Amino acid sequence: MLRLLETFLKSAPQLVLQLSIMIQQNYIEPLQGLSASASLVSLAWTLASYQKVLRDSREDKMPMSYKGAVVQILWHLFTIAARAIAFALFASVFQLYFGIFIVTHWCIMTFWIIQGETDFCMSKWEEIIYNMVVGIIYIFCWFNVKEGRSRCRMSIYYVITLSENAALTGLWYFYRRTNVISESNALIIVCVVTSSFALGVFFMFIYYCLLHPSGTIFGPRRAGCLCGEEPTAVPCGAGPPADVITSPPRSLPRTTGAEREGVPGDRDSCVPVFQVRPSVPPTPLSRAARTEGPIIRIDLPRKKYPAWDAHFIDRRLRKTILALEYSSPATPRLQYRSVGVSQELLEYETTV
């Protein structure tokens, strides 16, 4: 994640600046073109690498194939190229308005991300700062930061991106300096922006239709199971494709009946992790009725562990709670270690 944010904070502005200088000079130096190409490839490579590494690190998700990673690189390469060229064209003519446009787009995307209620950091203000940084990525390309279905949100984003690219390129075409860029060269640049965005969307459809790790449209769907450690676990239900995998929600409500049966649209929905056979006691008085549910004791203070440990612990909690809900009629409760009571540590037999 840090490398991804670093790449977009450094390479993306540098790419737009280099392209804008090339357009104003109407000349491309070899070293300048090589530097711009390296910046573009690094952006696409970082996005695809992040997706593959994150999927490989999660036991509840299917790993991404190298074919899927290559198609993802091409998808982001062409969409970011069209976006950067459109930015550079508009910035070469309207420098002030370009800055206003970038700030406005960033504010809108940041509020959109905050409205989605991401859960990556440990505090509210850290989460807001993280959303502000991710808003910079949304200036250039799509990046899913929330678990679950992303089809609607991604469609809205690409419709907005297509409209902005068309408006920026059209304004440059009508207000460009005709003595620097001829009509034929201007038409070629407009075609390059259009074809690059179309190719990016084409590779995006190729990825989701044929190479998505959780299953394809034309083939059997597979979903990452929450019981990855158990080789004899029951296979999971199908779910719609999602662009990226983020940390699971830290709020853990009781699973509903629809979620247990694997309703389409919930990627994390699975059939029961453990099948508990109901047993009838020999006499009604042989076992007392349970008045409260099981307690999951966590040998850590709440909100006192790093974000990556929280990501790992929360996945274990989801597995444990899902298993306990099928073996207990009551909702499991979580109990964290109190910082003020040091002897409470001795009461825990195991940790998550």
What does it look like?
Belongs to the XK family. Keywords: Cell membrane, Membrane, Transmembrane, Transmembrane helix. It is found in: Cell membrane; Membrane. There is one protein chain. With 352 residues, this protein is mainly alpha-helical. It is built from nine helices and two strands; from the N terminus they run ααααααααβαβ. It has a two-stranded parallel sheet. Helix 9 links the parallel strand 1 (295-298) and strand 2. Helix 1 (2-25) crosses helix 3 (66-91) and helix 2 (30-57) crosses helix 3. The chain is elongated and about 80 Å long. It starts with a helix and ends in a 16-residue tail after the last strand. Mean pLDDT is 75; it is low at 223-277, 284-290 and 342-352.
Report the end-to-end length measured between terminal Cα atoms: 25 Å
* Protein structure class: mainly alpha
SSE sequence, one letter per element: HHHHHHHHEHE
Q: Enumerate the strands of the largest sheet in spatial order, edge to edge or round the barrel.
A: 1-2
- Low-confidence sequence ranges: 223-277, 284-290, 342-352
Radius of gyration: 25 Å
Strand % is: under 5%
Number of helices: 9
What's the number of extended β-strand segments?
A: 2
Shape: elongated
